[in-house]
Amino acid sequence: MGELISVIVPVYNSERFLNQCIESILEQTYRDLEIILINDGSTDRSLEIMEEYAKQERRIIRSDRRRMHCLTAVSMRVIKRMAHSVKMLTGRNRRSGGWLNDI
Fold first, then answer.
1. Model pTM?
2. What are the C-alpha distances in Å from 103 to residues 3, 78, 87, 100?
């Protein structure tokens, strides 16, 4: 088992891209990861999509915050204590299968 990697995904009205983004993380060859999805007050179906994935995949942590505007430095420090490495990916992006192996 490798070091835990936290992949943080800030989400704001990303329903068109969110499935692809989450799937690209789940398809990573590196398996020791958690996915932290942070909704920042989306008005589309983003929160519903996040909830569906969180129910199906134990490695997904869903949070619903308004006006958070991503993460503060304090929050980043807390997350870094929980995991060896932290990666960020917006809800509109996706990555290839070996992205997390390069850490």
1. 0.72
2. 10, 20, 9, 6
How do residues 29-55 score in pLDDT, each as one tens digit? 988 999 989 888 899 999 999 999 999
Strand extents, DSSP E, the chain: 5-11, 33-40, 60-65, 85-88
In the chain, where the domains are located: 5-95
| Token duo for residue 98 | 């070996």
Class of domain 5-95: alpha beta
C-alpha 64/C-alpha 85 separation (Å) is 23
Alpha carbons 62 and 38: distance in angstroms, whole number? 6
